[in-house]
């Protein structure tokens, strides 16, 4: 099953920030639309609305004078705009006027050909001028909702003609009718802001988060560097963000509990092995005094096996104790001395014994006693499982390889993983305790190396590949 990779915190936060910005912009647009809905603005020019209303209510009296019929619509317009004023003029210069307006407009003449125009009366104000055909003829309408005459001592007049509006068109436009266009305009305004802010977020956020998490990356590398022999090390909390401190504290607490548990386990093994050695020695002495017989020989074999288990338990405790000194050692000398010590036992068991040093120097920084335990256990395993015949050969390679070869049946491929487990034995009748290969494996793990099995033409080979200890680890533990 493929493991799912973790999500990048940088990109998670970046996406969320961009989403948050988009939400804020949408909220702004929504609030703006709501505000427009509430105030209900007139997108139709108010002054133009005046002209539209007056056209429907203007009349000519019998004497030719102009008059505006008072209707509810006109009354509502006057009520809504108290400063409303307007002037109606025909081609004979008959006038109808309402409200307060600049007197200059009474003498100002606008061409009757103007269909629609706006006169700017101030930076923010203007009036509408429109000449429209009505049932009583073509009339000119001038009107505004502002009392411009009272605030201005003079009027600067300029005319802006809009010739694009078709004649006879309905000038009435409600604001809901232009919502789509308004939406497009807002999108044109908002999208660039969103794009710019999103691009800035994509650039700035990963960099900022990366800088903020530098201490966390250093702490993670520190955690990766913790090995079995450095299990007492703890992670620093000064470099990580305060939100991560509880996780680092929990990790350190777990390391402390594991370290205490391992030390208790090691002390138990050491104490048990020490307690067993004295009674085993006593039993062995008494067994030696028994008359020679098949039972006495079997008893001696059982006592030897028990003694070997006790010694291997002590060896396991020694391998994991972490109190050794790493030294620069020539493997040829170390393995040669081990071979010389064990040669009598190998030969007495019925084997030929061979040691082959490397042609070149094979000096490595190692824990000598641990390598000695590993090689000794491999040689004893070869003695126990090779059928008491053939040759057992030990060789050293300048690359840091130590090979122990025999001419026995070897280990079936299906069992080569399980035999590395403590107390697992292929042959239950063997005098071994099933700890030798596990000890060798732990020794290689301590040296960052490997333990490998391989079939040979005439038997089986177990190889120790010694890795490189870091320079900082060639110190007392």
Automatic annotation (TrEMBL):
SUPFAM superfamilies: ATPase domain of HSP90 chaperone/DNA topoisomerase II/histidine kinase, Homodimeric domain of signal transducing histidine kinase. Gene3D superfamilies: 1.10.287.130, Histidine kinase-like ATPase, C-terminal domain (3.30.565.10). Pfam families: HATPase_c, HisKA. Its EC number is 2.7.13.3. The keyword Membrane applies. It is found in: Membrane. Keywords: Kinase, Membrane, Phosphoprotein, Transferase, Transmembrane, Transmembrane helix, Two-component regulatory system. GO terms for cellular component: plasma membrane. GO terms for molecular function: phosphorelay sensor kinase activity. The chain crosses the membrane at residues 174-204. It is a multi-pass membrane protein. Residues 271-470 form the Histidine kinase domain. It catalyses: ATP + protein L-histidine = ADP + protein N-phospho-L-histidine. This is histidine kinase. It comes from Rhizobium vallis. The lineage of its organism: Bacteria, Pseudomonadati, Pseudomonadota, Alphaproteobacteria, Hyphomicrobiales.
